């Protein structure tokens, strides 16, 4: 079974800038440290520009489902979700649906975006936040916590994709 990273810290150009330690497949809040590239010293997650990378899945075979990796959105008002689906391994008419949820003050997860059922290679991109309605935009107010995940149908043994969730 493929494993997924907690996340890989990258800069605004997609360059890997360090490594994260924590438990793979656990919420981003379980990260115990982030190693910077200067001297390998643990440094806190900071936003030196106006964007913060929350989740990065590098291109490769991923698990066939993920109930959601949660992360704090307290310092941002919008998210950019970008996914490149490469394909599926095994299954009969496999499909995948990606989603983003926000945590309500009642402790219930509320779906704010879903990709719909994707069955072939391609790119999906959406902006989620307090924007005017437009193509590729989901108008939604973020709460203090969000999560990103996916589910599949058609019994694939793996799904190959890359994805990133960036906040601003």
Any low-confidence stretches, pLDDT <50, length ≥5? 1-13, 17-49
User: What's the overall average pLDDT, rounded?
Assistant: 78
How would you write the strand order of the largest sheet? 3-11-5-8-9
Give the helix proportion (percent range): under 10%
Strand proportion: over 45%
| Computed Rg | 16 Å
N-to-C SSE string, H for helix and E for strand: EEEEEEEEEEE
Shape label: globular
Q: How far apart, in Å, are the first and last alpha carbons? A: 33 Å
What's the number of helices? 0
Largest sheet, described in full?
5 strands, mixed
Descriptive account of the structure:
This protein is mostly beta strands and 168 residues long. It has no helices and 11 strands. It has strands spanning 18-21, 33-36, 52-62, 66-72, 79-89, 95-103, 109-114, 122-129, 137-139, 145-153, 158-167. The strands form 3 sheets. It has a 5-stranded mixed sheet with strand order 3-11-5-8-9, with no helix packed on it. Strand 6 (95-103) and strand 7 form a beta hairpin.
Helix-strand blueprint:
Elements: E1 18-21, E2 33-36, E3 52-62, E4 66-72, E5 79-89, E6 95-103, E7 109-114, E8 122-129, E9 137-139, E10 145-153, E11 158-167
Parallel strand pairs: 8-9
Antiparallel strand pairs: 1-2, 3-11, 4-10, 5-8, 5-11, 6-7, 6-10
